[in-house]
Amino acid sequence: MSELPDFHSAIVYLINADSARATLAFQRANRSEQYATAFWFNELVAETAEGAVIRQYLLTAGERTRYDMAEFTLRPELGAPATGAEKLAMTSFAEGWIHLGDLGVAVMPDTPLYAYAARKGWSWTTDEITDGVAATEEDIARIGGTPVPAYLLGHPVDAENGAREQALVVGEIVRTDEDGVRWVGTLPQGCVGAPVFIGAGLGENSFKLVCVGVALPGEGHHPIATFDRIRTALLAVAPERRGDAPATAAEPRSTAPKRRWWQRRG
Predict the structure, then answer these.
(1) What is the pTM of this model?
(2) Is there a contact between 62 and 94 (Cβ–Cβ < 8 Å)?
(3) Can you list the domains of the chain with their CATH numbers?
């Protein structure tokens, strides 16, 4: 009888099983620069008898969105039927993003990307980081000055051919009162804007998967914009939750929740 996986293997399995289709590689079109990763996030608006009502955004590092024309790399598994094109070009790129104050994070409502797919005759088939996985203030407070294992799901740039294959980068994060949460060391080119995960222990042999936040550009240790602050900033983006909806906000819709916890038995 084979041994059950350790926590590291279980965390890697959960990230790949639940979030592999959450990320998109992009860069400045027609130039070998401004490489980054973006990912889908479902903000929880309300819980109803029919299920969760969510608002969906694409999140990334705001610094990587300030140019006019971008190029997303598409993967066949992100569309149904499978997308025939390998690239998605987007003009007026900078105008499509909403910057969340001074967090260094930008969000794009899902509307333009869903409209693009509809025009091309396919539908997005993505995974999303959900509100239940996104870190709370309590999750962030538990991260201290001692490095803890962390996992970044991004799209590094292949030095030989420029390919943007998805990769899970394993490293560590720390939190200090002066600098907040940071990735220990540098990240591969193209991984800025990607989601960063940890496995938060729940006692005994169980843990929960937590998405800490968004990896940002930086010298040396990369800062991470944490989801507790991102949630607060999103309230200003979508004040229709208080009754006055702006045209730029993503439209609420219903979705089924996903389980993202793991327990080792025996």
Answers:
(1) 0.87
(2) no
(3) 7-249 (2.40.10.120)
